[in-house]
Amino acid sequence: MRTDYDIIVLGAGPAGLTAGIYAARAHRSVLVLDTGTIGGQTVLSYHVANYPGVGETSGRALSQSMLQQARAFGCDVKAFARIANIDLTARRKTITLKDGTALTATAVVLASGGVPRKLGVEGEQRFGGRGISYCATCDGDFFTDRPIAVVGGGNSALEEAVALTRYASHVTVIHEFEHFQAEPWIIAEARANEKISFLMNQRVLGFSGGAELAAVQSVDKQTGVATETHVDGCFVFIGYVPNSDAFADQVKLTERGEVVTDDTLQTSLPGVFAAGDVRQKRVRQVTTAVADGTIAALAALEFLSELAA
Amino acid sequence: MLQTALEHIESEQDFGDTLAANENVMICCGRMGPMCLPVYDVMEALTPSYPHVAFRDMAFDEPVGRIIRSLPETAGFTGLPFTVYFKAGKVVSATSSIQTMEQVTAILDEHLGAQD
Fold first, then answer.
1. Could you tell me which residues are beta bridge partners of residue A74?
2. Facing residue for B78 by CB, picked from A36, A59, A142
3. Minimal Cβ distance to B96: which of A37, A38, A129
4. Which CATH class is domain A132-236?
5. What b/e sequence results for A135-172 when a residue is b if at least 16 CB atoms lie within 10 Å of its CB, and e otherwise?
6. Residue A45 — very low, low, confident or very high, per pLDDT cuts 50/70/90?
7. Per-residue pLDDT reduced to its tens digit, A239-269
8. What is the pLDDT of residues A271-302, one digit of tens each?
9. Domain count, chain B
10. At a CB cut-off of 8 Å and minimum separation 6, what does A100 contact?
11. By the 8 A CB rule, do A218 and A202 touch?
12. Nearest-angstrom CA–CA distance, B37 and A137
């Protein structure tokens, strides 16, 4: 197995695979490394309908297509890597695997994405897969003709709330603010749906039940009035947290743990770039991840060229 | 049938034969959906490291899926996939919904024996 590369990309989602495609096509040696499966958060999307030029596809199919394209250009891609240590501070960056293998590169692209944000409240872990779910399309039919709740107030939460009315007898949307963070069209669609009601300005305190989920406890953030919402299921869509713990002490991060970058997507360390959901940005889509991967790869290539000059 | 590289259990006969022929069996019962695909990928990746474990999948919506759906250990599960671990024909662990490599290996190592 090769261990020395020009560029190592940490993360095999759309941003990472795109960086791999661009860097490998420029005849640089590139390794794309992921601690999970190929595709990142995209794999968790049943349908991707707004990726230009592709038409409707699945997140899995889109990821596999990107993977094949990267490999066709000579990019090495490894999933389920067991990373023990990451050292980005030296001139030659080193990623050490748990089996002792040291992988080195002159430039690194951080494209480690994000993971779904959890509420971190009592009962969330206990009822995971026993009432609490993070995928409406996957698990909606378990709640046919049963009352459920959706926690969240962004596009995903409201789109899934509307979709879940196909199965559930009633959907209660529980949101932490007085207003939604979603697009106006989906807010209107949700408000017009007779099977959806809203509990606004709520802080979720926990989940309760016996062997299965029975209720969501919340409190009004302004009045302090406690509410117990009796449901059989609860779907949580409260965004993502960046996957930056592994290098948090080496590059500059925001308070939310997002990697800070400049316009070329360089981080606070020379030769280290960031792309996709792990970096500080407002819009997180497959298209913006792909754009990030392109910019970061081109900047990394320029960095390598300048070093050689 | 699921489109994975795993061996599929497609009938009650398959299920019985698999448990009879293998002391350690992990079965992932799901669909070709977002929460299931990563678990199949984990199983495929772990297959070389756990030669003493038979990794199988099973289509949740096919009649054969009733075997896993009707187990007492999966009662109350509301998240795909349903993943069940067997030792000498007996259920030793069961999980609902997506699982990471670390979660799967923890169960394998505890109940079915550590990797080579």
1. none
2. A142
3. A129
4. alpha beta
5. bbbbbbebbeeebbbbbbbbbbbbbbbbbbbebbebbb
6. confident
7. 889 999 999 999 999 999 999 999 999 999 9
8. 999 999 999 998 888 999 999 999 999 999 99
9. 1
10. none
11. yes
12. 14
H or E segment at A89?
none
CATH 3.50.50.60 region(s) of chain A? 4-116+240-308, 132-236
Residue A107: exposure state from Cβ atoms within 10 A (0-12, 13-18, ≥19): buried
Interface size, chain A vs chain B, as Cβ–Cβ contacts under 8 Å:
77
User: Could you tell me how far CA A177 lies from the centroid of its own chain?
Assistant: 22
* Position B90 in a domain: yes
Range of the domain at B96: 7-112
Asked if residue B49 belongs to a domain, the reply is yes
Distances (CA, A) of B37 to A7, A132, A184, A286, A293: 29, 19, 33, 19, 24
Annotated active-site residue in A6, A76, A139, A277:
A139
Which residues of chain B are under the pLDDT cut of 70? 116
Q: Is residue B60 part of a domain?
A: yes
A138:B42 CB<8 A: no
Residue B105 has what pLDDT?
96
The interface pTM score, or ipTM, of the predicted complex is: 0.86
Contacts of A2 (CB under 8 A, 6+ apart): A29, A31, A76
pLDDT computed for residue B116 by the predictor: 66
Q: What percent of chain A has pLDDT over 90?
A: 89
Nearest-Cα distance to chain B for A133, in Å, is 6
Contacts of B110 (CB under 8 A, 6+ apart): B93
Can you give the pLDDT at residue A282?
Answer: 85
pLDDT of residue A134: 87
Of 3.50.50.60, 3.30.200.210, 3.10.350.10, 3.40.50.2000, which CATH number belongs to A4-116+240-308?
Answer: 3.50.50.60
Tokens encoding A96:
């050490």
Contact B75 A211 (CB under 8 A): yes
* CATH code at position B14: 3.40.30.10
